[in-house]
Amino acid sequence: MQQRHSTSEEVNDMILPSGMVEKFPIAELQDLRNGLLQSGLDSWQAAELVSSFLSGRGYGVSRQRARDAVTRLDGISCSLETMQEELEKLALVM
Predict the structure, then answer these.
(1) CA distance 18 to 5
(2) Tens digits of per-residue pLDDT, 43-74?
(3) Which of 48, 49, 76, 89 is 20 to 30 A from residue 60's alpha carbon, by CA?
(4) Domain ranges in the chain?
(5) What whole-number distance in Å separates Cα of residue 12 and Cα of residue 80?
(6) Secondary structure (3-state) at 66
(7) What are phi and psi of 9, to 5 degrees?
(8) What predicted TM-score, i.e. pTM, was given to this entire model?
């Protein structure tokens, strides 16, 4: 797996099982959050968006777990920190 390099102001850290730190730019997390909040997607479509976000960055993801995460995110504030935590739970290192 290739690790991205950015300044700490531009990224959130994602802790992987191996102890490596994956860094997603805050702008990407904001785009994902905006897409989930403003697009009017149903839970299946929102789960597909989350799955695409992770798979586009080289991670595997369970579709059912993505739907569960979307349901949890829908019921809470959907802060970037909360999204980061949910992505940490979903991301499967390939």
Answers:
(1) 18
(2) 899 999 999 999 998 888 888 999 998 888 87
(3) 76
(4) 12-93
(5) 9
(6) helix
(7) -70, -25
(8) 0.70
